[in-house]
Every structure is written in C-alpha cells, then in structure tokens.
Design goal:
Helix content is 31%, strand content 46%. The chain is of the alpha+beta class.
C-alpha cells in the first residue's frame, strides 16, 4: 500500500475500533504524540483511547502528501462518544511520519482539546 492508502486504512480501522489493525500499520517502535494522552507507544495509546471510547465517526476532509517526503497530513472530523456517553466533535490533523517500509513511525495528533479535555477528565 502507498502512504495515501495507509492513511485511509488507518481512518477505517480507527473508526471501527479495530485496534490491532491500527497498531499493525505502525512499525515496532511506532509512537503517537497526542495532546490529551501524551507521547506513548502506538499500542498503549490506542488501547487507552479505545478504553475511553464507546463510538467514533471519522470523516476524511483531505490527505496532503509531499513529494520526496516520508510525511503525510491527514485532515478529518472526529465525532467521539466517550464511555460515559458524553459526545464531542472536532477537526483533527494527524501528521504521519513513515519509515522506509511505509510503516508509521510517528503520528502527531493536532486538535483543539478545550472541550475534549474536560470530558476525558470526567471519566
């Protein structure tokens, strides 16, 4: 798969809560940098996110890829229902860094956490 296809697979698996498939897109040292959960190994981050989540709806708004770069920006809307049934919706940009085998080595999540942070703290 190329980087664009991997980004789409990532969104599909994340929306469906298929954590093993999401983590399989990362290399063994893959890291996630999240404004809510901090910097964690991919498996730890997605397990924690999944534990806090009842439902997710994700809608891709754009995929931006530079030629001659291992980086890709994924822009999407995230409708998140937390395990306490609180709901929040926000736009997200994920900056994805790939290794030479097109595995994700780092994923940096960027979004406004004002509402989401308060809801997660209530869990």
């Amino acid at each position: 798969m190329n980087k664009n296809e991997i980004a789409k697979e990532y969104i599909t698996h994340l929306e469906n809560g298929n954590i093993e498939q999401v983590v399989a897109l990362f290399n063994e040292n893959g890291m996630v940098d999240s404004p809510l959960y901090g910097i964690k190994k991919a498996k730890d981050f997605y397990l924690e996110l999944n534990n806090d989540t009842t439902n997710s709806e994700l809608h891709i708004k754009g995929i931006f890829e530079e030629n001659d770069s291992n980086n890709l920006a994924l822009y999407f809307t995230f409708k998140w229902t937390l395990k306490n049934n609180q709901k929040v919706e926000f736009d997200v940009v994920d900056i994805i860094e790939f290794d030479n085998q097109n595995k994700i080595s780092k994923l940096k999540i960027i979004y406004d956490t004002v509402i989401a942070r308060k809801l997660v703290e209530q869990l």
